[in-house]
Amino acid sequence: MKEICPTVERIVREWPELESPAFLHGMLTGELCGAEKLEVGDFIKGLLQEIGAESVKEKALQTLYVLYDETLKGLTSSDFSLELCLPDEARPLIERARAVGQWCEGFLYGFGLTHPGRAKLGEEVKEYLETLQDVADIDSEALKDVEDEQMNAQLEEIIEFIRIGAIAVYENLHPAERKPIELDTIPEPTHKTVQ
C-alpha cells in the first residue's frame, strides 16, 4: 500500500474534491465495509460521479484498481494486513494528524454512501463510527509546532485502533467462514483525540 500512496496523491491533485489520498482511501474502505458487495467498476463509476468527471486517465484508472484490490485484500486477509494510505512517520505530526482525520471523514462518507441504514447496525459498529467522528474532529492546527514522542505514540495508537476497527467492521458486516472479530475485544485508544 505504501508504494501506491504517492501515485494516489498525484490523482488527488487532479481531483481536489477528494481532499487527500487519506480521504480517498478512507472513502473506499468505508464503501467496502458498508456495501453488501462493492465491485471495482462500481467504486470507480461512483467516484467519477461524485467528483463530476466524465473520464479518467489510464494511469489513474490502474492506480484506482490497485488501491481497490490492496484495500479489499487487507480487509479480508487472515493476517489483518490492511494498511492505511497515510503520511509516513517521518512527516510532521500536524500533517499526519490532519490525514488521520481526513481518513476518518472519508470512511464515514463512503460508509454512508453504501450503508445508509445505520439503525440496523450493531452497537459495536455504531461506537466505532462515533469514535471515527471524534477523530475526524481532531483540531490538527493545535498541533502546529508540536513534535514529541508521547503525541506521536498517541497518534500511532489511534491509527492502529482505526485500522483494526475497520477490519472488524468489515468482518461483522460480511461474515466469512472464519469467526468475526468481536469489536469489544479491540483495546480502546487511551486518547480518542490528540490534545
Just name the CATH architecture: Up-down Bundle
Our measurement of the CA-to-CA distance between the termini, rounded to an integer number of angstroms, reads 29 Å
DSSP, total strands = 0
Estimated structural class: mainly alpha
Give the averaged pLDDT, no decimals.
Answer: 84
Radius of gyration from CA coordinates: 16 Å
> If you consult CATH, what is the topology?
Four Helix Bundle (Hemerythrin (Met), subunit A)
CATH superfamily: YgfB uncharacterised protein family PF03695
Share in β-strands: under 5%
Total number of helical segments? 7
Number of domains: 1
Helix percentage range: 55-70%
Order of helices and strands: HHHHHHH
Let me know the largest β-sheet: none
General shape: globular
What's the CATH C level? Mainly Alpha
How would you sum up this structure, described in words?
- It is a single chain.
- With 195 residues, this protein is mostly helical.
- The protein contains 7 helices and no strands.
- The radius of gyration is 16 Å and the shape is globular.
Describe what is shown at a glance:
By secondary structure, this protein is mainly alpha-helical. It is built from 7 helices and no strands. Belongs to the UPF0149 family.
Characteristic terms for this protein:
195 residues, Four Helix Bundle (Hemerythrin (Met), subunit A), 59% helix
Helix/strand layout:
Layout: H1 5-14, H2 21-34, H3 40-51, H4 58-76, H5 93-114, H6 123-136, H7 149-173
Helix pairs in contact: 2-4, 2-5, 2-7, 5-6, 5-7, 6-7
